[in-house]
Design a protein that fits this description.
With about 300 residues, the protein is an all-alpha fold. The chain is about 70% helix and about 0% strand. α1 (about 5-40) packs antiparallel against α14. The protein is flat. The two termini are about 20 Å apart.
Length: about 300
């Protein structure tokens, strides 16, 4: 490689870094800095309203307390249950929706746009909607089940198991369309020639789905699983609006527990430790999923 080629390549790299630098700076400012600040705060004992106590450095003590905290254990169990249930249901519903809107039919564009409406609605608004649906006095669920027999109305959100199921249902309703959008993108890159050849060989619709669609959809499914798992693990607004973590601790997820610790109890250090722990768990899950997806989805293939 001659000297002119080396200079040209150096200039191309410099131009690339110059164009990427603003995005990297914004990412560091709005993403990396809060994480590092939370990590620093988690290594101190800080109480809102008690400035006379200062902010003594305690090292990993907050994390050791978190490991022994039974309330945090309960919140982690609720979080994991929410992640597993909501993610699996959203992938299943998203796959069904994607298969339907992938077919050619009249008004397909309108149907695709309508399906995205729940995802486009702000989470706080959607949470209020579901809270009103299951209201114990004027909710649509009671009207649908009991009609005008007001004395039979049930306080749905007062029962632990039911309240947890309603929160999962609200999340599935809102975000299944996003999973469907990712899966639809994977469906559209599958060559039609494979299906034509399978039809010629006498394969049924189920056989075509099982042996062609599903294997070729694996990267899209894993990508949808990655995004939905990350979102489900940091769920907060649904719980905050609908149940406030109740009844009892039935819907108290880790993010809401961290919020209560920070702003209700005023324990800045311990609340930051909860937030950092959630971040580390999401990071570990993300790296696991990215490894499963494969480097072919993350790196541009060389021609």
């Amino acid at each position: 490689m001659n000297h002119a080629s080396l200079i040209l390549r150096h200039r191309e790299k410099l131009a690339a870094w110059t164009m990427v630098a603003p995005a990297l700076l914004v990412t560091m400012l709005f993403a990396l800095y809060p994480v590092m600040d939370s990590l620093w705060l988690s290594l101190h004992n800080i109480y809102i309203g008690l400035p006379q106590l200062g902010s003594p450095f305690v090292g990993p003590d907050n994390y050791l307390t978190l490991v022994r905290d039974p309330v945090a254990h309960q919140a982690l169990a609720v979080t994991l249950a929410f992640v597993v249930l909501s993610t699996l249901l959203e992938l299943a519903c998203g796959l069904i929706i994607a298969l339907v809107i992938h077919e050619r039919f009249r008004g397909r564009g309108l149907v695709r746009a309508a399906i995205l409406i729940p995802w486009a609605i702000p989470t706080v608004v959607a949470s209020q909607l579901w809270r009103y649906i299951f209201n114990d006095q004027y909710g649509f669920a009671n009207l649908l089940v009991f009609g005008e027999h007001v004395t039979d109305y049930v306080p749905w959100l007062a029962y632990p198991g039911v309240a947890f199921g309603i929160v999962v249902l609200a999340d599935v309703w809102k975000t299944s369309s996003f999973a469907a959008l990712l899966i639809l993108a994977g469906l559209q890159v599958i060559p039609d020639d494979l299906y034509d050849a399978a039809r010629v060989d006498g394969a049924t619709a189920w056989q075509r789905f099982w042996h062609i669609t599903l294997p070729l959809l694996k990267p899209a499914l894993l990508l949808a699983l990655l995004f939905r798992t990350m979102d489900a693990f940091r769920v907060f607004d649904l719980v905050f609006v609908m149940t406030q973590g109740g009844p009892g601790d039935a819907t108290q997820v880790l993010q809401f527990y961290g919020y209560q610790t920070l702003f209700t109890e005023g324990r800045i250090g311990y609340g930051s430790a909860v937030s950092v722990a959630v971040f580390l768990m999401i990071l570990a899950l993300s790296l696991t999923y990215l490894r499963a997806i494969g480097s072919s989805l993350l790196e541009r293939r060389q021609p």
